[in-house]
Amino acid sequence: MRGLCAVYRKELCDHFSSYRFIVLFALIAMVSFITSYMAGMHLRENLGGLSRTKFPFLMLFSTPGALFSMVQFVAFFGPLIGLVLGFDSINRERAHGTLIKLISQPIYRDAVINGKFLAAVATISIMLISIVLVISGFGLAIVGVVPGIDEIWRLLIYLVISIFYISFWLGVSMLFSIFFRNIATSALASVALWIFLSFFVSLGADVVANAVAPVGNQREIRPEILVKNARVKDMVSLCSPMVLYSNATATIIDPMRKTTRSITLMGPAEQILASRFQNPLRLGQSVIVVFPYMTALIALTLVCFAISYFVFMLQEIRT
Amino acid sequence: MIHVENLTKYYHDLCAVDTINLEIEKGEVLGLLGPNGAGKTTTLRMLTGFLRPSSGTIRVKDYTIEEDALKIKRLLGYLPESAPLYHEMLVYDYLVYIANIKGLEKTGNGKLSQIRNLADLCGLNEVMHKPIGELSKGYKQRVGLAHAMMNDPEILVLDEPTSGLDPNQIAEIRQIIRRIGKEKTIIISTHILSEAEAACDRIVIINRGKIVADDRTESLKQTASKEHFIHVSIRNADFQSARAQLEVIDGISKVECIQEDQDGMIDIRLTCNASFDLRGPVYQTVKKTDWALMELHQETRTLENIFRELTKEE
User: What is the ipTM of this complex?
Assistant: First the structure.
């Protein structure tokens, strides 16, 4: 525990004093501000005449400003924070020879990787919480609506999911920093995997869905085929942590959404019911809807770190 | 204090350390000598507990490396080769970090007083608030030494502590080591013979993973000083006849052919008793023949000769 605390404190201090972290933090904070400002202005204009708007505060995070909402921004570029914090965590120490020195100290070997991971997770948490808090304060001033308890809980859950999401990418980059001795190689591999999983999986999902349930050139498409196509697409898309994260936060940050599916097959009775009940989902129900995605994301993060942990523990460190 | 038995380490198929047996007493300063790639660093890394031996046992006091690696690490202070440090940290912050890792108490005779003592001992007072990256190699080595001694260990393991330093820095580091050596068991790995000769009570020479010599420094020096070498270069002779003529000279114990050129030149080394000067009898012997004497000189046998003999490539 002593070694873990010492490594954790040193790593935390290193993160906060490193230029790359400050630059990335400034960039993300700036984009978040701009997005929230645009969303805030948009909300003020559109909700001005309405008497009882549902969850206006959460809209600050989920309404797209000029290009995208803050939630979308975290989904796209949040992984970069994780990658930046972890891509050289082990191989830099190895390259400088300090890993040998660290491991020869009277501490358990896992204190090194645990300390580094926890410090990076703490950095991610502090970064996200501070951005959400500042945006909230900013939003209060622009929109002029105080968030309710339900909204605060939703934001907290959203923060936890986001921390796990970014920590997954942190775990990936740490794993590469253990596998690859060269810092540039691990950085490149991390970015390549991020690009592939975030941007190309959806293209692959289209191809697979059209192969399994083709909907392209037919004049009259049967609804069952259309639904099957959408389901296959959704299933394959879940290979992407970004889709998993978007689904995990979908009903949390937007209570008006009742499902994470892009297309659903409804009978006439269900259509009448859906049109009658326009109220938002309660927090518990929202959590139930996204629970599988949340647990999958958390499990993915833990599995990724566990692999890094075992590889590091079993590796023979010579340099 | 340290008991090493049949220690072996394989890196895949390569045997880096081959069945080493070693006994190190408390308060001894042991020099581990050997050419590059001999297995010195691997041996030290196994002793310090972070490289697992392929076979064999290491016992420090009553602890074994397999079961009590952490306890052994607490007894040891290790300075790896070229003292790897965090260059962006201040010296003081680095020492505090190491004190935290080693679990020194914050109050009383704990962390701060130990850092102060080490700063005095290693001469770090004037650079305590400078980034490590801005220090000279000598100062970096001092920081490394302070690191190794942070928990006041009973055993210090120093891997090539003067490598890459200038003569003044080497002298300073040796002075610090001598000061520490009065109280602690020290193992120094080096390939600089003068360093081992100056600082160590005992010298162990390793070559290709095996111990090829293990003796007190004084006895090795005495062994060396008992014999001289005479180098003779002659032309118009073959080695067999030259040997027949030269080995009969009283006091010569060994005749070796060092080099034989195609143009008939032979370089011969004669090992002889140091109590006689045999250059005269050798000259007289050559004079009686029709060989052309091209060179004749005497060389005092040193530790370096012993080292080179024991570690030369076959």
Answer: 0.79
Does residue A302 form part of some domain? yes
Other residues' Cβ atoms within 10 Å of the Cβ of residue B267: 17
Q: Are B242 and B250 in contact (CB under 8 A)?
A: no
Residue A299 inside a domain? The answer is yes
pLDDT at A262: 64
Could you tell me the pTM of the whole model? 0.82
Q: How many domains does chain A have?
A: 1
Q: Using the 8-state DSSP alphabet, how is residue B265 labeled?
A: -
Q: Which residue has the tokens 């010569």?
A: B252
Partner-chain residue, chosen from A2, A14, A97, that has the shortest CB–CB distance to B80: A97
Residue A28 lies in a domain: yes
Q: Could A106 and B70 be called an inter-chain contact, meaning their C-beta atoms sit closer than 8 Å?
A: yes
Which of A105, A107, A313 should we substitute to test contact with B (largest number of B Cβ atoms within 10 Å)? A105
Cβ contact (<8 Å) for B74 and A318? no
| C-beta atoms of B84 and A104 within 8 A | no
Show which residues on chain A lie within 8 Å of chain B, measured between beta carbons: 2-3, 5-7, 9-10, 14, 96-98, 100-109, 316-318
Per-residue DSSP letter, B66: T
Helix A70-86 to helix A19-47 angle (10° resolution) is 170
In b/e form, how buried is each residue of A241-264, taking b as 16+ CB within 10 angstroms?
A: bbbbbbbbbbbbbbbebbebeeee
Determine whether the interchain pair B50/A317 forms a contact, defined as Cβ–Cβ distance below 8 Å.
yes
Q: In what order do the strands lie in the sheet with B29-33?
A: B76-79, B155-159, B185-190, B29-33, B202-207, B210-216
Domain, as residue range, for A310 = 2-314
* C-beta neighbour count of B216 within 10 angstroms: 13
SS3 assignment for B111-179 = HHHHHHHHHHHHCCHHHCCCEHHHCCHHHHHHHHHHHHCCCCCCEEEEECCCCCCCHHHHHHHHHHHHH
Q: Which residues of A touch B101 (CB under 8 A)?
A: 2-3, 6-7, 102, 105-107
* Residue range A220-269, pLDDT digits in tens: 777 777 878 888 888 888 888 898 898 888 778 877 766 666 666 667 77
Q: Cβ separation of A7 and B78 shorter than 8 Å? A: no
Judge: B101–A96 Cβ closer than 8 Å, yes or no: no
Instruction: Among A18, A104, A317, pick the best mutation site for testing chain B contact (most B Cβ within 10 A).
Output: A104
The yes-or-no verdict on residue B109 having pLDDT over 70 is no
Question: Which domains are assigned to chain B?
Answer: 2-223 (3.40.50.300), 227-311 (3.30.70.260)
Please say whether the beta carbons of B314 and B264 come within 8 A: no
- Give residue B137's identity as a one-letter amino acid code: K
Cα distance from A109 to chain B (closest Cα, Å)? 9
CA distance B255 to B278: 13
Q: B49 and A7 in contact by Cβ < 8 A?
A: no
Instruction: Report the first-to-last Cα separation within chain B, whole angstroms.
Output: 36
Structural domain includes residue A239: yes
A11/B266 Cα distance (integer angstroms): 65
Rounded CA gap, A117 and A2, in Å? 16
Radius of gyration of chain A (CA): 22
Contact A97 B74 (CB under 8 A): no
